[in-house]
Amino acid sequence: MKNQFNIYELNEKGYTSFVPKPLKRPFYVFCFLLDGEVLAEIDGQNILIGPGQFVLVPPEKSIDIKYFNGCQGFDGCFTLEFVKDASYSVLRANTLIQQSFWFEDAVFMGALFKRMKTAHEDKDKNFLQSALDLILGQLRPGGKVAAVSERFLQLVFERDKVPLSVAEYAEMLGVTPNYLNKTVKNRTRRTAIDWIEIARLNIAKKLLKDPTISIADISAKTGLPDQSYFSRFFKKKTGQTPSEFRNDR
């Protein structure tokens, strides 16, 4: 992919460069959301990307999508050789960059990415390089702060861990359940229990694909050991019982 740049448009049906399985890529991957949300595990860290946010992932970092909803925006990738000026500090950082753009800046970024997509289709390399320079010049390394909400998401979606209650996560984070709920809602527009339920549902759907695992065991692994309660929870969220979901696979 030497001297190459690619850009794709996201929509509510899903995503492109951010693929639904762990993957390492030998080039920079970026994403800018106009609307919706993506929860991605990037290099072992859970990152929630929301409207107006830009994320730049360095080469050879694993990307695993945990959840996405109503995505509109742009994503893509580029090599270091494609960039006009490789001296930007963000290109030397070995960690992801996540930066928020608000109000007029977010509108400008959305319009810029839309124009970049057209330029990519027209093979207008000069415009793409200039636009990429403009974006890279606005980014600052080390701007990501591991707030309570991010640490909470990290715990909830920790691989192979049974989801806990809001109170248990609050105790682990050294805050009250009320504070945790308020902080998570302000940051993500979802409550703490919403994210716990998303994690439970992800685990259940994944395990139901394996016919050798009993529904009772799956119930326990979601943190809902009462199988009847688990079945009601699953049907409320999906419109199907666990058995119906399994049989449809």
Fold and architecture overview:
This protein is an alpha+beta fold and 249 residues long. The chain folds into 2 domains: 5-138, Jelly Rolls, CATH 2.60.120; 151-248, Homeodomain-like (Arc Repressor Mutant, subunit A). Helices cover 43% and strands 22% of the residues. Strands 1, 2, 3, 4, 5, 6 and 7 form a 7-stranded antiparallel sheet that branches. Strand 3 (28-42) and strand 4 (45-49) form a beta hairpin.
Q: Which residues sit in consecutive blocks of at least 5 with pLDDT less than 50?
A: none
Strand pairing plus helix content: what structural class?
alpha+beta
- Which CATH class of the largest domain applies here? Mainly Beta
Helix fraction, binned, reads 40-55%
Number of helices: 10
CATH superfamily of the largest domain: Regulatory protein AraC
Number of strands: 7
The average pLDDT score comes to: 87
Task: Estimate what percentage of residues fall within beta strands.
Answer: 15-25%
- Reading the helices and strands in chain order gives EEEEEEHEHHHHHHHHH
Compute the separation of the termini in Å: 36 Å
Describe the main β-sheet briefly. 7 strands, antiparallel
Number of domains: 2
Radius of gyration, rounded?
20 Å
Question: What overall geometry do the principal axes of the alpha carbons give?
Answer: elongated
Q: What is the fold-level CATH name, i.e. the topology of the largest domain?
A: Jelly Rolls
CATH architecture descriptor text of the largest domain: Sandwich
